[in-house]
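User: Before I run my own analysis I want an independent prediction to cross-check against. Here's the chain; please return only the structure tokens and, at the end, one sentence I can use as a sanity check.
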Amino acid sequence: MLKRLLLALALLTPAFAFAQTPATPAPAKPAAAKAAKAAAKPAAKTPAKAAEKPAAEVPAGPPKVLVKTSMGDITLELYPDKAPKSVENFLAYVKSGFYDGTVFHRVIEGFMIQGGGFTKDLRQKPTKPAIPIESKNGLSNLRGTLAMARTMDPNSATAQFFINTVDNARLDYASDASPGYAVFGKVVSGLDVVDKIKVTPTGAQGPFRSDVPVTPVVIEKVTLLP
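Assistant: Structure tokens:
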């Protein structure tokens, strides 16, 4: 009887001990632990660079042209916003050197001085096609303003221009039947030179019966200023 009891106790002891000892997990490797820890942390945000602002553009002013004459220099300011075709046309002649060596061939003291179409010996230069009139632009033919010369046909302006020596409101646009003359700029320096030209002695010469300066007033060079 005692022997049987001892055998029964020998079978129960290992089972009891197994049940009471919890399983111990294998220790994690150091490298794997660090990787797991790093993965758990959110990625650090890289601060975004502030968007670079474009450099502010300096608005270009109206184009200016220097007219060097045998009586002094005249600086003209042009208005492409008011008379784009007239300004484009005028500048094309300037850049090509067309005006260099031409003259103010028509000078009337109480009216205007006109030039840009004839050489010193009063031969008319060939021009590009005529441009449409732009007189309906709100600009008036005031003293010192620059306008396109033309024939009786309103859309006949080519290279010739004039500078008003007095206020000539009668040359302004009145209606489509009376379109006047297109102002496209003004004198900003050298109005005293204009005043000298307007009083130069005139007379009949070449194909003209009057108003031609006795001593040629030469437009020596016309350049677009930077």
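Sanity check: The two ends are 128 Å apart (CA to CA).
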